[in-house]
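agent> fetching stored inputs for the L-homoserine docking request
agent> found them:
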Amino acid sequence: MKPVRIGIVGFGAVGRATASIISQHVDLIERRSRIRLEVTVICRRSGVRPQDIPDGARFVSDWRELVAAPDVDIVVEVMGGTDQSLQLVRAALEGGKPVVTANKNLLAEHGDALFALAASRNLPIGFEASVASSIPIVRVIHESTTGDRLSAVYGIMNGTANYILTQMEDRGIEFDKALKEAQEEGYAEADPSLDIDGVDSRDKLCILARMAFGGRLNISRIPTCGIRQIRAADVRAVNRLDSTIRLIGSAENTESGVEVSVRPWMVSRHSMLARVRGVNNAIFVSGSKIGTQMFYGRGAGGDATGAVVVSDLIEIGRDLVQGHLRARSAVGFVDSPEMKICENPRPVRWYLGLNVKDQRGVVARVAEVIARYDIHLESLGQEPRMSKDELSLGITVEAVSEPLICRAVDEINALQFLTRPVLLLRIE
Ligand code: HSE
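agent> prediction call returned; pasting tokens
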């Protein structure tokens, strides 16, 4: 059987795992899928140790050489970033080669142009691995739920952030230590600020919302807040309310437009979201007929992501072998209207985590600001026996819109006794 020849650009955790899974599973893939995959060329700017080069493959340091190579049928882009990767994917498609990518950043920023190019050449871009790693959520939205009108897609979309939050919760460790561990485990992006500042979740949410609601959405329109500001004391304070913290990407299609955001939420410890632990992701998809479905699994890591890259390669490889190579659905990217964003999000409940220097009247001053915005306090708690230099106060308020609570929080942040900005959590 003539093999389908693969060129891999980027040889970090995902690139290495992709090559290794192909070599481990080559016979299994042939039995299950009737095609044979073979890695012929790999490329990495910073070089590769000779022992890491797959048997029978050769190494090149310039991706242009890989894209032009006559013995590469499908190009895998797992280098990350949006500059070189954009040029690379363009060049591959222009050269008539299908692409498989795990790069959500690239698709969230340049998906319109790339899917249009792919459509014009009738070539597929496989991007299942770009969102939620092992969870086949792209297929679910593109293929399995198209009979319904989807009303929401939301959930935990970043494994690194979830790993950090659950480690802080379980072991009481500080943020920096948990982040270092996530990096050592190979979950974090090369630039971990993408994970902890919510950017990676924003990009994934953007892709999912576009596909689910069939409209174009610029990433700059997604309010994004990450978890960098969360301290072990905040996690303890939230735990005392029988709740915990999760970083949630959420897009809801309401009558007045799409409500979309990435931010940390306070969720009940008994909720499904709280039960998603470690590096796992969970994506919820709601539709008028299907109700709410939850898709759960590993959200990061070389093997989990590499296995999904290989599945995309198999699907495209099958079409290639049968001479049926074709562009895939690009709903939300090509020929789609601009998505209407809701300007007045519905009221929801909020948690405010305050860290203050102890002095008389602290609570009264904060309560006064909240009352002035006509916001109703729901609960107020203070961690006992803390240092007077840094007291931790936890406040929950009744449902108000995001712009209103943000204005009140801005004013509270200006109070001189605050030792760091208020931690604002949306309550599930
Ligand atoms: N760094 C990402 C995460 C993995 O932690 O979820 C790939 O998206």
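agent> quick read of the result: The pocket of L-homoserine is lined by residues 133, 158-160, 187-189, 195, 200, 299-300 (CB under 6 Å).
agent> awaiting further instructions
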